[in-house]
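request received
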Amino acid sequence: MLSTLANTFAQANHYFNTAIAEHFHAIDSGHFQPALLIIVLAFGYGVVHALGPGHGKALVAGYLLANPSKRSHVFQIGFLIALVHTLSALVVTLCAAYLMNVSANRLFRDVNPPLFQLSGGLILLLGCWLVYSVFKERRIVSESVGAHTSRFGVVMLAGVVPCPGVITLSFFAITLGHMGIGMVAAFFMSLGMGLSISLAGLLAQSVQASKAIVTQPKWFWAIRFLGALCVVLLGLWFLTHPIPQRAF
Amino acid sequence: MSKICVCLLLCACSVFAHPHTFITVSLDLNETDMNVRWLFDEMTSQSLLEDFDADRNGIFSPKETETFQKEVFNDLKQFSFFTHLKVSGKSIPLKPTHLFLWRENNAFGVEFHVDLKPYVHQKKAIGFWDESFLCALSLEKEQIRSSVKYTLKEVDNAYYYGYLLEFL
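response:
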C-alpha cells in the first residue's frame, strides 16, 4: 500500500512535469490558452511536489507544536516558506543562466550541499532555543502563550534551500525563450507548495489545539517539548547527513 | 487522539520523496552482457543538453562524454547507478563501461554496459531504482530485449518504488 502511494506521488509529479513541458512548446503557436494551462498546472505541480519530504514541513510541524500559533499564522508561515523557497530557486536559476552561462542544475549541485548543512546548523540552534524557551515557560498554560516573531526565522531557515522543482521548471522556460511565463509559473508553483506546507502546519496546530492537550497543562507542555525536540533532531540530522552532490 | 493519529499519518506520508527526474529504462540483455539505456524527461534533458552538448550539435564527442562521466556519472556510483546487481543473493558493486550519450528529439539519453561474464550460470537479480527517490525509473517488459528468460516485478520498498529483474 505504501509503495502504491509512492508510485502515485511519482506518477502525479511526472504527469505535471510532462504536461507543463508540452504546453511550453504550444505557446509558440501564439495562443493564450497554453500559457494559462501552464499556470494552472504549475499550481497543481506545486501542491503535489511539496507533499514529498523537504520543503520545511517537518520544521513547521515541530515549530507549531512547540509554539502554539493562530491559524492565520500557520498559513502565513506556509506560504512565506514556499515563496522564499521559490525566490531562492529563481536566484540560482537566473544567476546560472545569465551570469555564469551554465545550467541551473549545475549551479544547484554546487550550492545545495553547503546551503543544506548551513540550514541544518541554524535549525539546530533554533531547536535549542525552542527547548530552552519551552522549558522556561513550563508553567504557562495554553491560553497565555503569545505570538512569536521567531516564525519569520523559521520561514528563512526552511525556505533558504532552493527548490529543485522550481529550478528545473524555470530553467526549462528560459531555455525555450519563455522566461516571463516561467517566472509566473514558478510563482503559482510556490502558491501550490504553500498550500501543502500550510496543511501540514494545520495538522500539527490541530493536535496542539485538541481538547485533550488544551485541558491538560502537563500534556500541553509535553507536546511543546516534543515539538522543540523534533526541531533539534531535524537540525542534527541535516548536519550529520550531508546530501551528496549529484546532478539529478 | 484521532487528530494525533492523523498527524502521525501525515508524518508517515511525508517520507515519500518527490521525484523531479523521470528516467525511462530500456535493456539489452544476455547471459554475459547487459546494456542499460536511460532516457530522461524533457525538463531534465534540457539542463543536461545545455551542460554537456557544448557545441549544440546533438552529438556527443568523446570529450563531451568524458566531461559528463566526470561531473555526473561517476557521482552515481554511491547510488549503484540505479542498477542494483545481486549474484547468489550478494550485492555486487557495479562497474559500468562503454558510456555513450545521445540525443533523441528533446530527450537526453545515456547508455552503459555491464559485464555479466564473471557471473555466468549463477543466480542473478538486477534492481532498478533510486533509493533517494529523487529520480523515478520506469521499466516495462516492452523495453527489454533479452535472450535469457527472466521475470520482472515491481518492487515494494515503502518510500520508493522500482523494478526487479530476475534471471530464470
